[in-house]
Design a protein that fits this description.
The protein is α+β, with helices and mostly antiparallel strands and 563 residues long. 39% of the residues lie in helices and 11% in strands.
Amino acid sequence: MFNSKWILLNLFCVLDLVETHARNSINDNVSTKPVEPPPYGSQFILRTPLTIISAPQNATISRVAHLAKSASTSATHDVTSAFNTPGFRASWTQLVSPKIADLSAADILAAIRKEILSCEVVHAFSSTSENPNLQMFQVDDMNLTVARRNHFYPNIRTLYFGGVQNVDKVETGMRWKLEDWAETSLMGFPPFTSHKNISGLPFPVPWPASWEEAYTRPIYSGTNIQRRAFPLPVHFGDVQLVFSRAYINPISILSPSDTGWKTIACIFNISAPHGDGERHQEGDLAKPRWRNTTGDRYNCSAWPYSISAYGLPDAIDHFIVPNIYAYYPRMTVFNLTFSDVLARQYARLLDDDATTFDLTKDPKFESDPFINQMASMYFEVDISGNVLFDEPSVKLVVASYSDLFGSSTGREVQQWAVENGWMLAWALSPNSQRVKSCTWRLLDPMVAFSLRGNIDLSEKEFKSLKQDGASFKTHWKDVEQVIAKAGGKPWNVTFDEHIDLWEGLERSMHSSVARLRVPRSDQCNNEDMCVGVTLGGRCICYRMYPAVSGGLSHDDTSSRQTA
């Protein structure tokens, strides 16, 4: 068996020579001297950007916009043809309610466009580095300590430049190189103008010469296409931020699928670090080719490795077919056709009553139910601007019940939400066939009551929410005891135990505003002010955009820790 680290190391040596030549031919004044960041990282504090979007970020979005509209228009016929196939129609009719079962292909596409423009866009991060179930992405992203000590959401490059994350390791350096390559050659972001030496690597990696350069790179996020209670796969993080679409739409570019999967799975098919790399003729998508480092789980031919594959929130027709083909290799183990998967992808987006998710076990990946396989099939949203917390950028925090509820870290999440004026909802990640409530969340009554001056509820609704708060606190203490018996770590409690506890919490909360579904575009008057829809159809909204607050109005939550 080949050593993957050795392969990547040798690949990057070749890439470095090619990239260095290309870079120097463009700009002979590029510095090769490593730039050391200011001493912010020791206190987990980073310098806050002064603007929402900079000129280099705006230029990247403009380059995508120049191509996206025509690419989307060119793909419209292929999409409507896919929606008109007998296979899609049969699956669609089985999944959705009669009110939308007979929609024409053009009407289905128009509805999808409308929902993608307004559906939840989410970024996930791990609250702590201690949880062994979440360590895949802890090395790159921020944690709750960093979140509470900063006034913006830092992208990965800013975290490393500021010294919060340590890049001086072989694995991290190689991953940095890979991600930087994707951000420049695929997305079109300007290259960094300095370099940094990494212990154990035979070449320096591109490195920001300033905070301003670090800010230019994207914040990786995803669309909640399937309107899940816990939007992104939990291994991305147990805390998930739902952004305001009014804030991020003008500063975002989109790709048909996760660019990390695309880059890692298909990197050996890329001929050069600049340019299209993979090229395929029209019609090749009917003959999937998957050659990658992760088995048969990604189709490298689904979309070209080029900025031309990117889109905007209002230009996504060219994503719809490639998004399904990219992940189709995962679906073959369920004996599902392309049309079956296409129907399942969009049924829940358009219909609350869609019966999309049977929880059939994947026979090849026994710990991965079918519903979790589809969790990765989001459109990636690369926020190409700065998410400032004192601007109306975030509207909701979603926390993983099984990872955080009843823990001291969970209390910190509550406090952080209140400090920023954000509502908090709890959700259970669908990691088991026993999970039936993966389509709604439970509103945290303690956080909501602390923000009662800015939540549009009646006195009667607040009274019922306050009563739920008493049950909620009792349940919190019960879960604390369970966690204490498991060594003080929530992840040591079995998932079946967490499900039992979750169902107990559900039974104890009787307020009509306790259970929230993910809203659709036609359900609330102002989607950026509203965080969910009750099972009775009531929109739960802010009176004004969220504002910084003073803290929880009960004494169960620890005070904010300062550096």
